[in-house]
Design a protein that fits this description.
Length: 245
């Protein structure tokens, strides 16, 4: 029986975030160079995005490229930027077919000009789609996002009295303003850390870690994570008895 058959579509997480880890290790494991692992990882992105949209998940956010990733060997970074442009151009048709709109968070201006240009074009060309929002975290750092939000909040001049600063008002200055907080965070490759990803937003997210490397993570593995999420009791500080009453 597939994990999909166990899913209750009435209790889906509205927003799923994924730290896609393990492309390089998958490549080495199979005797390829790291770049090939990234190309293979694109297939997993396609599968998971389709699986999420088909189930009815409304928001999917993928940790695509962190600010720390710029420190990787130049050949790998250049290959990733090339892969990004190729993938964006190729997948617009698929995104529109599946009625998925593209979104991006992070320091997009630090990306090569061609990359940011193609990204903005893809966001515009898929903006009419309403089935699911696929957000790519690019050149992203959660700590930097939080610091920038504080700066923007101060510069806005709206909060001269500190009592006006609330979680809701602060969240409106984050890159993810307008998106609900993730309810489920998935990380592949066996690592059990969040790596500077959506630190504010995942305060109450359920965490799912898997030994699977990202290129090994497909629809069935995504369904498994959803089933695991649905089997948990989300209490938000309450007791089990309060939840059940």
């Amino acid at each position: 029986m597939s994990f999909k058959d166990k899913i209750n579509v009435e209790k889906l997480p509205t927003h799923v975030a994924i730290i896609m880890d393990g492309n390089g290790r998958w490549a080495r494991k199979h005797g390829y160079d790291r770049v090939f692992g990234h190309y293979q990882g694109v297939e997993s992105v396609r599968e998971v995005a389709e699986a999420a949209a088909e189930l009815g998940v409304k928001y999917l956010t993928l940790y695509t490229f962190s600010t720390e990733n710029w420190k990787r060997p130049k050949t790998e970074v250049d290959a990733l930027m090339t892969l990004f442009v190729e993938t964006i151009e190729k997948e617009i048709v698929t995104l529109n077919k599946n009625k998925i709109s593209l979104n991006a968070i992070g320091d997009i201006q630090s990306m090569p000009e061609l990359n940011s240009k193609k990204l903005m074009e893809a966001i515009e060309r898929t903006s009419h789609n309403k089935r699911m929002v696929l957000t790519l975290a690019l050149s992203y750092s959660s700590r930097k996002e939080i610091l920038e939000a504080i700066r923007k909040m101060i510069d806005s001049g709206q909060f001269r009295k500190t009592e006006k600063i609330t979680e809701k008002s602060f969240s409106s200055f984050l890159d993810t303003a307008g998106l609900p907080d993730p309810e489920l965070l998935i990380r592949t490759s066996g690592e059990q850390r969040v790596s500077n990803f959506l630190l504010w937003q995942i305060a109450y997210a359920e965490l799912f870690f898997t030994e699977k490397l990202w290129p090994e993570f497909g629809k069935e593995e995504f369904y498994e994570a959803i089933v695991d999420f649905q089997e948990r009791e989300r209490r938000f500080g309450l007791t089990s008895e309060q939840i059940k009453s």
